[in-house]
Amino acid sequence: MEEERIRFFRMLIDTPSPSGFEEQVQQLFLERVKDAVDLTYKDVHGNAFGVINPDCEHKLMLAGHCDEVGLMVSYIDKEGYVYFSTVGGIDPQITQGMPVVIHTAKGPVSGVIGKKPIHLLEEKERQKVARIEEQWIDIGAKDGEEARSMVQIGDPITFDIASRCLAGERITGKGIDDKVGVFVVCEVLRELGREKQSLAFGVYGVSTVQEELGLRGAKTSAFGINPKIGIAIDVTFASDCPNIDKKKVGDISLGKGPVLARGPNINSKLWMRMKNVAEENNIPYQVQAEARATGTDANVIQTTRSGVVTALLSIPNRYMHTPSEIVDMQDVENAIRLLVLFIKSLKAEEDWIP
């Protein structure tokens, strides 16, 4: 993948965006696509839109959610220690000892999540995982008064971990779930913008908000767009690492292509069409069985209004919801290529009824 694209992707995942506090990433999204699209805007929930051919009768929606899991200040004690709650699903085993940033109205405040030294732990304590409400952040304040002058109740918190390049084309960082989806939406819009006159659909690229709290942004933005076709771009569990049961999540590997979900959340004709486009153009892909409604934006897009022709395209991701997720940029590049070719192949009047 081009170095400039890599830089932008890393900027996305390094930019804080816990659910409900996505403004900085949304600005990056709008700046990235503005020269390629005909229209950009945001709605009252904070969803950001880039639109190609907004006057077209037939509409296609691409959705990647920009929010990441994080923490939030819930209490400050008299000694100046900051207690927190989770924003989205975070495993309490990974938090202790982590550096964090509290995002305040006055600017970022650095801190660390405290941990009793192993030398002082009793045997019972060594076997126990501290609950989130038992953990605290040390910002270096001398007492509660000083701490409260620095941070406020409700301030969002993110892990202070920068993205890094690994071997090959693999990248690790926080918030890859699902800013990699936002990245794909950006790059598809930028490529389609060069030949928008030939497209049979208006393309609505959406960086959705608050997916981690119940698919909220996709629900409202899909209702507003009322698309004929909706494709969610998200991450899925890579099973090519220790202790992942392939019998439960499927055989999904980094570097073997994006993943086409198959199941009741997915329109069968749309799934077959995307599969055929991949095969006709020698694009590697993987298939994942989703026997129920997926926990992605595709879930609510499908049931919007009278129903939407829906698909889910996923990027294999290791160590989801940790500060050290890993994706392979070859999978990302192939996802972009597949979506561009699929959208260009669409005709205005096609029968998508199963």
UniProtKB/TrEMBL annotation:
Keywords carried by this UniProt record: Aminopeptidase, Hydrolase, Metal-binding, Protease
Pfam short name (any one): Peptidase_M42
Highest rank taxon of the organism: Bacteria
Protein family per UniProt: Belongs to the peptidase M42 family.
PANTHER family associated with the record: AMINOPEPTIDASE (PTHR32481), AMINOPEPTIDASE YSDC (PTHR32481:SF20)
Protein name (Swiss-Prot/TrEMBL): M42 family metallopeptidase
Source species: Thermatribacter velox
